[in-house]
Amino acid sequence: MNVRSWVLCLVVCGSCPAWAQASAQSQPEVVSHEAPATFSSRVNLVSVPVVIRDKEGRAVGGLRQEDFQLFDKGKPQVITKFTIQTSITTPATASSAASVAGNAAEPSAATSKPELPDRYVAYFFDDIHMQPGDLLQARQAANHHLDQALDPNTRAGVFTTSGRTTQGFTNDVAKLHDAVNRIQPWTPITDKTECLQISYYLADYLINKEQSLTPFGITRGSQLAAVLLGEADGCLHHPVDKSLPLRYLWTTANTALLYGMEETTSGLTVLRDLITKMSALPGSRTIVLVSPGFIMSAEHRTNENDIFEKAIRANVIVNSLDIRGVYTPLRTRTFDAESGGANSPDAGFVRLQAEQDEASRSGDILSELADGTGGTVHNDNDFEGGLKELAGRPEYVYVLGFSPDNLKFDGSYHGLKVKLAKEAKLDIEARRGYWAPSHAVDPAEAAKEELKEALFSRDEIADIPLDLHAEFFKPSGAKAEISVVARLDAKALKFKKTDDRNNDTLRVVTGLFDQSGNYISGIERVVEMRLRDKSLEVLEGSGISVEQSFSVPPGRYIVRVVVKDSEGHTTAARNTGIEVP
Q1: Which of 384, 418, 434, 469 could disulfide-link 141, Cβ–Cβ 3.0 to 4.6 Å?
Q2: Start-end of H helices in 25-86
Q3: Which residues pair with 580 in a beta bridge?
Q4: pTM of model > 0.70
């Protein structure tokens, strides 16, 4: 076996004959194994999606990096990354031909090029916070919309914040209708028939923000707490023990705070998981959030920031439909000027003001999620028209990236502002801010997440020249073996010279997806190279080949290979399609 064969056997299969291993007893030149490796990652990079619209609301293209100005807490920042995402997509096709029937001994010939859908829309219903009447309107609008929404290249799915109703991505309209019609109002744990009604917003405001409500009493000057204490007193029919209304108020508020926190956390968690799922899909990815809005406390901001980062990196846009439409809070409370507590006009005004504040705060999250991911908000009463508008995505989304100088890991909020260098009568929709991490990010964990996101993307990256070929064998009747060979140009790798060795590490991940873009399985291999000069010269002439295989039933598949070069901090990514009859 010559030097060239020795190098290739190490890279491809991760093992070599005993004589080859013995010739490098001091240190093997190449070791291949399935294990994690660490790559440098710009963990402090902040990405800011921006949509520029003209006076007719159309997205504006043709802008360049120098056309934008970016400010963090009012301080100008240097834009170090600039990309343009467009909604003009083409179906994913094979970079090498796919295979047809072969025999047990020989690989099949190549004939077919399976194509994947290039547009995915997730209709995400906030069944936790929607009232029954709002949900009924949402179902009616969605059913009418879905009859016209799908085309051959589009797949849609139905999801809910409670997680109780789910329909994966499909082009079967009947399945989508069935899922929409199965969505039911969330049954809260708290009893809505309870006399004293305190929302999550009111509880969080009184206990955490205003800190006017304590187990020992209410602070002076808090009109809202005084009104609620009066309501509690009325609910208990003015008990002789004057401590009972306070205990009732305190217990009710804490219960509302607990369940409100859990409900918001649940909704954000499901949204984050949906974004992760969609990151594995090809082409355009859009989430249409149908919700009346909801309240987030300070404890939820880290979750929100995580959603922004995942959505931006995965190129998932969140559009929001405010199912309240043109919202006007109405109170039906009957005022009795001769009664105290909640029945007085003054008390009614305080309650009304609190409800208006809550409605405004609830809607903020819809705008934040849209602005933070390059999406938009629809908030008039044309719900069907809103779904049609939001199921699309802007033709142009500019993503600005910067690395904050001397970022403190204090969990503080950083307000962002995007301006155009030249004044123009254009509307700017951009991420409003981000939350600094409360601790330093582990580079190894960040690198793993970065590699995962690269695998679940469909973008092809050519930092390293990479050829990808897939074919199948049929050793038996039912199952087939898909063989995937990735060949890299070693001359594009960056080796670090230490003593007499040229060092570099490659992480090669091969992923298999079905024809709808759903992840099936993946294999990761780490190739550690410690090459002498002669071996490096041979490798640069021959290239590096890595082979993996998958056992599959008949069907259409997409194979994706992602390669990370540790020393060069570069990436290669290719896709290919294959059909097993």
Answers
A1: 384
A2: none
A3: 555
A4: no
